[in-house]
Amino acid sequence: MKNYSRQREEILREIEKLYNHPTAEDIYMIVKGKDPAISRSTVYRNLNVLVEDGKINKISMQAGPDRYDLKRQPHNHIICTKCGKILDFDYNFELDNLKKILKEQTGIEISGEGIALEGICSDCKNLL
Fold first, then answer.
1. Domain regions of the chain by residue span
2. How far apart are CA 66 and CA 51, in angstroms?
3. CA distance 33 to 25
C-alpha cells in the first residue's frame, strides 16, 4: 500500500459499511458529509489506490458510472438494467468448463472470475 492516508482510511471505512456497490460519487457524498474539506478528486484518486492495492474491486459498468465492491473474493453479480442496482448472488457455474467453452466458441480467453447477469429488479418491475 502507498503511504498512509487518513482520508484513504476514512473512504475505506465508509465502503466497509456499504453493501450496495456504491459509485465514486456516492462515496464522495458520504465522506464529504463527515469531512467537508475533502475534494472529489481526493476521493476518486484514493479509490483508484484502494483498487490498485487490492483493498476493493471496481466494477466497470457498460452504462452509468463504475461501482465499487468490498467483497474481494470472486463472486457473481446481477445488474438491474433500469436503475443500475447491483446485487451479489451465489451459484457455481463450473467456471473452468465455462471458460473453455467460451474460448472455443469465441476465441476469447476469459480473465475474470465472476459472472454478471442482467435483469430488472423487483423495485423497477413494480413501476412498470
1. 6-69, 76-127
2. 12
3. 12
DSSP 32: H
CATH T-level fold of 76-127: Dna Ligase; domain 1 (3.30.1490)
In the predicted model, what is the mean pLDDT of residues 9-37?
A: 94
β-strands 86-89, 76-80 pairing:
antiparallel
The residue with cell 466458441 is 105
pTM score, whole prediction: 0.79
| Neighbour tally for 6: CB within 10 Å | 8
CATH code linked to domain 6-69: 1.10.10.10
- Cα separations (Å) of 49 from 33, 43, 44, 87? 21, 10, 9, 24
Which 3-state string (H, E, C) describes 50-64?
HHHCCCCEEECCCCC
* Non-local CB neighbours of 116 within 8 Å, separated by 6+ positions: 59, 76, 77, 78, 79
Q: Do residues 11 and 31 touch, judged by C-beta distance below 8 A?
A: yes
The pLDDT value recorded for residue 1 is 46
